[in-house]
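Researcher: Quick one. two chains, 720 residues in total.
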Amino acid sequence: MSSIPVDPHSGSRMTDNTENHPGAREPLVLNMDRFSQVTQQVCQVAEARRTPMAWYICFALSLGCLGVLGFCVLYLILTGVGVWGLNNPVMWAFDITNFVFWVGIGHAGTLISAILFLFRQKWRTGINRFAEAMTIFAVICAGLFPGIHVGRVWVVYWLFPLPNQMEMWPQFRSPLLWDVFAVGTYFTVSLLFWFTGMVPDLATLRDRAKGKIQQIAYGAFSLGWRGSNRHWHRYERAYLLLAALSTPLVLSVHSVVSFDFATSQLPGWHTTIFPPYFVAGAIFSGFAMVVTLAVPAREMFGLKNLITIRHLDNMNKIILVTGCMVGYAYSMEFFIAWYSGALYEKFAFLNRAFGQYWWAYFLMVGCNVITPQLFWFKAIRTSIPIMFVLSLLVNVGMWFERFVIIVSSLANDFLPSSWDVFVPTWVDIGTLLGSFGLFMVLFLLFCRFIPMIAIAEIKAIMPQADPHFDEHGSDDHEAQEETKGEVTS
Amino acid sequence: MHRGLFLVSRFLFPRWSNGLLPLIVVVGGIMPVYVVYFVAFGFSPKTLEVGYQPVQPVPFSHALHAGELGMDCRYCHNTVERAGHAAIPPTQTCMNCHTQIKPESPKLTEIHASYESGLPVEWIKVHHVADYAYFNHSAHVNRGVGCVSCHGRIDQMEVVYQAMPMSMGWCLDCHRNPEPNLRPVSQLTNMAWGLEPDLTEQDLQMIAGERAKVLDLYHISPSENCSTCHR
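Model:
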């Protein structure tokens, strides 16, 4: 007898695993009797001869946006940063907003893959692979912006401390340089972590592959994996070490990003709350992005029994928690601005809420503080359409958070005579749109060619993975299910 | 856990590929360092530009004029003390002497042609500083930086070549520690000052003292700001 939970009333396979029953763990993998079914289900996405039409439509749209990005970046490089709407006090606007936005998005992937792994949160296995992929693609998008905003792209290697005939080094005391290191480390470690976790699954695809090209490609990337005990032992060790290595990065990367602002003297930026506030915001936006991507992906590729409602429910809870932290940070900023008694500080925050960018501020508060509060209700946390819309709103809100922090602080600084208004040009907007194109192109390619779910890992959280699974008498199970039925009814 | 699925071994690396592993490690580990240093030193002006010695339209010998005959540099390059730019002399400057000295020399054909037509001789520039770097001769010369510091032993060059790298790092070397390149302004154009072969310990001490004196006299503390040169 299998232990797959059966709904006691209808007798059909269970699809709602969001109920909590004392003494019993809800299954995280639904409607699976054998391990091979998991392999089959996940691999068939990458192996399918026919790509779903929806994938082609999304890919065409994303590729179009990527083209816009290419055009805008080329135009920028050939002409100069004047094609953006930057002006004298507002020297950072969409470029750095986009950078911080994309770096923030990445944080959920690392949190899921590293911290939740170390805390033995089993539900992470369903979503970690594509959350990590999202991290890597988001960091690629983020890395684009500091690269192009320097204006003279051909000397962008000056960001790195390389020996040169000028005997010139980057300013090691500047957080902008720390940022280069932080984001570089983050990208490297995330990529290694993602790839290491993927090796057994790539080997699965290699062994199942029919075409010569697939066999060679998957074969090369699976690094000669044979599934021996020694391989598994080293794999588990490496994975654990990389998880431990990535864990501090969840906190450090966005802290360093926040130093770009916090170490300056500008009112509205010069705030000690920035590092934790940025980290909370990053995880908040990252989880919103995971939900935004998971909802359509599980529909499109038929993975609803692996990325279950319970996974989404859990993520929405994290969005609620981090949303509350972000809301707290917003109010604390205002409190400190008043409590400090500093004239410029007070002005900066009043100006943020009621100045020329008031609309952006209230859009931000609406999306980031009010929206997640709806997740207190379970009906909303488990409703696919509502959570999709809310996660989109959180993404919008978090983009505007960075915009508000950067632009409203710069536009109205100490000297009223130098105040100005930032108005984005079509190149600004095209580059923002295009960065989504880049992200989606990479993500869609990932969905199509790489196992989206960690096949090997998810098998370990199935009840069948329990060494005593086969020893259970069937009576025992029926008794358990009866109890469950009583609780729910 | 059931892992039999992974035991199929049809598309593993062949055994000989184990031999590639050290190669990959060596190439992967050393290559980035090699590339960085190759670019840093290989593409440096020290490598690419030192020794640049174009053929000039006139076989003018600095070794003869500035060396053997001991003419002062400023006789021809007469603006160095007053202007940012060190003038290349007009043909008329050559003719100040060469109407009298060796007027028939075949080496002077170009000079005569230029003198008669009024078109300047097209000398080829040897010491080239990038357009985005502002360099002022008078600022250096008037504060005791001699010609030899940047141009080398012109008095020994038959045909002028670039002796120094003229890279930004090389400029900064002196801006960070100017004293070894200072001299009394009376010795500006004396290429051999401080470089004579038979200097005694006492002479060297005296030279060092002179340099220190100049440093004090002109309050020399060169700026290292970007905008000093990149205006």
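Residues 1-12, 474-489 of chain A have pLDDT under 50 and may be disordered.
Researcher: Thanks, that's what I needed.
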